[in-house]
Specification:
Elements: H1 2-14, H2 19-24, E1 28-33, E2 36-42, E3 45-54, E4 57-66, H3 71-86, H4 91-100, H5 107-118, H6 125-138, H7 140-143, H8 153-160, H9 168-187, H10 196-204, H11 222-229, H12 235-246, H13 250-254, E5 261-262, E6 265-268, E7 279-282, H14 285-297, H15 316-323, H16 333-344, H17 349-355, H18 363-368, H19 374-388
Antiparallel strand pairs: 1-2, 2-3, 3-4, 5-6, 6-7
Length: about 400
């Protein structure tokens, strides 16, 4: 009988509150036992806290609002917190970690986050467009909705297998972008397999596809073609002449604007070049004459506009050459120029490469050698113009 009474007194000491008593209590602090307290702000609202000693320091941990959190639930939460302390954990820190834990992120969401993070380091607008476009065209339609933490080598292999040999470059770049996306997801704190792309490559095997170079016209045939081109009254033909005379890339020519040309120099901003560096192109009198013709024809800022005020498409010059029965393509004239310069001139290697917009001064050399060899390149381009005529 005596033991039964002691047990009842102990139960009351541990659990001092009832639902009815809690409701009738005035504002203030009210103990329930074992460090659990009800803090009432008013007659009808309050919160639960539990007082703990964590690594020798007294701490208070909130357990939720009253009356939304019942007495039974508050006691259960307090018991869990005390158990965590006994296990050597800090329940306040552990709860914060859970709240900050990232939600389920799909491969598509991770890829777009990775793209936004990488945007600044991509060399130009075309590179920005291509990076995410590659995944959107070949990867995300198939596995984009799968949580990035579930992506493994088998999924990647199945996705890229149809392209692995037929479009090897596309598949290789897609694999690299998936790898970058997984690294980004890992940085978010997600449990991803960073070896998945390496394993997928092992499963896919060696690519059989051979790299095919863009068809180029032999430099001995270039003068005849160029003279014929001068007789063609077509925007694509005019753009092709400018491309050949400057040895520039197709995208650089078709997006060329009049405000980029000043004092006989065509200046391409860093975002317009493949190297991500500003590139100055010396224009010969003949190239400047083409600019003059373009200025008289163009209704806007583009040297070579299409209909509706836009620049000519990326296929306009290539289609023009194909239609006329030529196997060579516009971009191939860079090879034509470089081969001619190698075999027909005494220009230095750095001058020939700089004429193509290639970055040749790296490391310590680049830190001290800051000339872009404009005058030497002007002489080289003049020789090229004479050869073509």
């Amino acid at each position: 009988m005596f033991e039964s009474q002691n047990a009842k007194r102990w139960a009351v000491k541990l659990n001092a509150l009832t639902q009815m008593r809690a409701k009738n209590l005035d504002a203030g602090k009210h103990a329930d036992g074992q460090g659990l307290w009800l803090i009432k702000r008013s007659k009808g609202a309050g919160k639960w806290i539990v007082r703990l000693v964590i690594r020798g320091k007294r701490r208070e941990m909130g357990l939720g609002p009253w009356p939304d959190v019942s007495i039974a639930e508050a006691r259960e939460r307090a018991a869990e917190a005390r158990k965590a302390v006994r296990d050597g954990l800090d329940p306040i820190v552990e709860r914060a970690k859970q709240r900050q834990a990232p939600k389920v992120v799909t491969l598509s969401e991770a890829a777009r986050g990775c793209f936004e993070a990488k945007k600044a380091e991509l060399k130009n607008a075309n590179a920005v467009k291509r990076w995410l476009g590659l995944l959107e065209n070949h990867v995300l339609p198939k596995i984009g909705n799968i949580p990035v933490e579930d992506i493994d080598q088998h999924m990647i292999k199945k996705t890229l297998e149809p392209l692995w040999h037929s479009k090897s470059e596309t598949a290789r770049k897609s694999l690299g972008h998936i790898g970058q996306t997984l690294k980004y997801a890992a940085a978010l704190g997600l449990e991803v397999d960073l070896q998945a792309t390496m394993k997928a490559r092992a499963l896919l095997g060696k690519q059989r596809h051979k790299t095919e170079h863009i068809p180029a016209m032999p430099y001995a045939d270039a003068p005849k073609f160029y003279r014929w081109l001068c007789d063609q009254d077509h925007t694509a033909a005019l753009a092709l002449r400018f491309l050949i005379l400057t040895a520039a890339r197709t995208s650089e020519v078709r997006l060329a604007t009049f405000d980029e040309i000043k004092d006989g120099i065509w200046t391409l901003a860093s975002e317009r070049t493949k190297t991500g560096r500003e590139h100055r192109v010396p224009l010969t009198p003949e190239a400047l004459a083409i600019v003059g013709i373009a200025r008289g024809r163009s209704p806007n800022d583009f040297l070579f506009p299409a209909l509706r005020g836009k620049p000519i498409s990326d296929m306009a010059m290539s289609t023009f050459m194909k239609r006329e029965g030529y196997e060579a393509r516009p971009h191939g004239f860079r090879t034509t120029f470089r081969t001619w310069a190698e075999e027909q001139t005494d220009a230095a290697f750095e001058v020939k490469e700089a004429a193509l917009g290639h970055h040749v001064d790296a490391g310590v050399v680049g830190a001290y050698q800051r000339s872009d060899r404009l005058d030497k390149r002007r002489d080289l381009m003049s020789e090229w113009t004479i050869w073509l005529n």
